[in-house]
Amino acid sequence: MATKLFQIQSQISHLCSVLEGYLSKEEVGLVKKAHRIADRAHSGQFRKSGEPYISHPLSVALILAELKLDYLCIVAAILHDCIEDTSVTKDDVKNEFGEQVAHIVEGVSKLTNLEFTSSSQKQAKNFQKLILAMSKDMRVMIIKLADRLHNMRTLDSMSEDKRIQKAKETSELHAPIARRLGLHSIRVELDDLCFKALHPRKHLIIKRKINKQYGNQKKTISLIKAEIENRLKFEQINATVEGRQKQPSSIYNKMKNKSRKFSEVLDMHAFRIVVENTNACYQALGHIHSLYKPIPLKFKDYISAPKPNGYQSLHTVLIGPRKMFIEVQIRSHEMDFISEYGIAAHWHYKNTDEPSKKLARNWMGSLLDIQQNTDTSVDFLENTKSDLFSDEVFVFTPGGKIIQLPLRATVLDFAYAVHTNIGKKAQKATINGNEVELSMPLKSGQTIEIISGRFVKPKPSWLDIVVTSKAKTAIKAHLKDNSKIELARLGKLLISDALKFQNIKINDVPLDKWNKCFKKLNCVDFDDLYIRVGLSEIFVAVVINKLLQDINNETINTISIGQTKGMAINFAHCCFPIPGDEVTGVLTSQKGLVLHRSNCSNLEHIKEKNAQWMEVDWKSDDKEQFEVGISCLVENRSGRLAAIANTLANLGVNIENIEQQQRSGSNRLFYITLVVTNIIELNSILDKLNKLPHLISAGRL
């Protein structure tokens, strides 16, 4: 027991020694006071390892002290388990240390029992609570990450199942958040501890290989370090040069993600050069490139284009002595501090413009926007994962503003990143002056200009194009709002046409009858009724019978529609109806009214399912365009497909898709999807195609 008490006393002494390096005497005194309170509160409590419980909050506080967090954060860390597990209350903390510390302690306490390995819905709700706590004070999340780091360091006292569970949870949630907040030292250690817990044998093998490789090449590494130091000293650049030994988890991930062998990954040695300022970074880069040959396309400038977590540095890969690959990072002292401590650096520099704090706040703001526009916590978790696990590309607006996006982001993601209103009106774009599709993936350094369309609006297919949570959330929100409007228009049209059949105008129905109808059908108002009719949740005949009890179910044999845009009306892809066809409408719960050609082979099967259907009088204008499928059987000669395409181009017809279906002897069969306005235009197109030489037949699918 005496030994354990001595260890605790040693812990608090070491903590205070670290704190005295950057805190005032009064602030260190408050930390000691917090320790005395926590020590009394946790008296008699022990961890599973058998250590006094107070050793845990002291270890968490030391992790934060090494990040140079302010005294408020250190005090809160020491007290972070008191409210949850002891008789100490929030008011007690507030009276002793003030409102701010009390709020931080309460925030951490609320996160203590959150589970992230439970059901997906519960897990997602807990993740939302985590984000909400982080948004109120970032120090809550930093303490939570330090708490998790110490728990990961002491996993040995847990059962194997518990170790694996904690490691998976940490790998999927805590380590990515640490990376996003720029907490490099915490993230690196969490990654490696997770790898060790999940793959102990692989971790051991790789660690042995690292030590062996370093021993074999120690002289060469020392030579490179000395040559770099001497060159920079000769050029009168004050610099410190350090070699960095890679972690087993980092090497394993590179092997797995890039399909590389041990030797290919281990042959690369990393050096960090820290200089006085930004200008010295670029000067040092030039001298290093003259010393060793740089590898093309391996240079990255994160100074002019920082990562979203505030990280700044120059990266380059060189070929050194004995053909050894050298990875070099060059940064200033301030950049180095921020790269190690991320958002925590804010409480050291006390600078409101410090980049990691600003970028972390921007990220938090985007998460809260996503949360407000997402229906379920599960959707929120899924939308956020892409932001947590992504690498970045850096692209430019025409005005030179840098936009940071995750790897594999597209032009459409860029549009939404600039502004939601630009995204939802995006029609096409240019990259470096060349016109591209909205689905084009982006590469760092490109300049993108978005060309807006007045009548453009988001489509469901856009969800397959974008990868960022901001774009996905904005598109889903628009589609949800827009579909409600379209369904309401369709529902009103269906009811209006049914009433016309009885020579009654919809506006002539008294309001009291409508209110009685709402009550009978459990509808809130007109919009609710129209949407549910449009979704086929309520049959039109039922509405009419509730309004006018003497009317029977034959009131909706036919519906008249004009322009289909802005209505929840869709076109069956099995038969591609177009204006001029005889069409039948089928009401569905997902797509509203789906139009089929009346002779469609699928229609009888649909009617057998007792779906609500009706004949449709379709009077479209000539401005709307519709897809239609045709087949072309041609002789197997070169240039036949080109002749068809040229004919269609001369007629001003857009081709959506071409598929070669099969060979029939010496002939070829193509299925082509066209865009036309009506059946008259289609028949004219088919007439022209059937006159082409070597085209055997062209007809509608």
Features:
701 residues, alpha+beta, Hypothetical protein af1432, 4 domains, six-stranded mixed β-sheet, 20 strands, extended
What does this structure look like?
There is one protein chain. With 701 residues, this protein is an alpha+beta fold. The protein contains 29 helices and 20 strands. Strand 9 and strand 10 (434-436) form a beta hairpin. Helix 7 runs antiparallel to helix 8 (120-136).
Poorly predicted regions are 116-120, 349-353, 550-556
Level of helix content? Answer: 40-55%
C-alpha termini separation: 87 Å
Total DSSP E strands: 20
How many domains? 4
Strand content: 15-25%
CATH structural class of the largest domain: Mainly Alpha
Structural topology:
Elements: H1 2-19, H2 25-41, H3 55-66, H4 71-78, H5 82-85, H6 90-97, H7 99-111, H8 120-136, H9 138-153, H10 160-180, H11 184-198, H12 200-216, H13 218-234, E1 239-244, H14 248-258, H15 262-266, E2 268-275, H16 278-291, E3 293-294, E4 300-301, E5 314-319, E6 325-332, H17 333-341, H18 346-349, H19 355-372, H20 377-388, E7 392-396, E8 402-406, H21 411-418, H22 420-424, E9 426-431, E10 434-436, E11 448-452, H23 469-500, H24 511-520, H25 526-534, H26 540-547, E12 558-561, E13 569-571, E14 583-588, E15 592-597, H27 601-608, E16 612-618, E17 626-635, H28 640-650, E18 654-664, E19 667-676, H29 679-690, E20 695-700
Parallel strand pairs: 2-6, 12-16, 13-15
Antiparallel strand pairs: 1-2, 3-5, 4-5, 5-6, 7-8, 9-10, 9-11, 14-15, 14-16, 17-19, 17-20, 18-19
Helix pairs in contact: 1-3, 2-4, 3-4, 3-9, 4-7, 6-7, 7-8, 7-9, 8-9, 8-19, 8-20, 9-10, 9-11, 10-11, 11-12, 12-14, 13-16, 19-23, 20-23, 23-25, 23-26
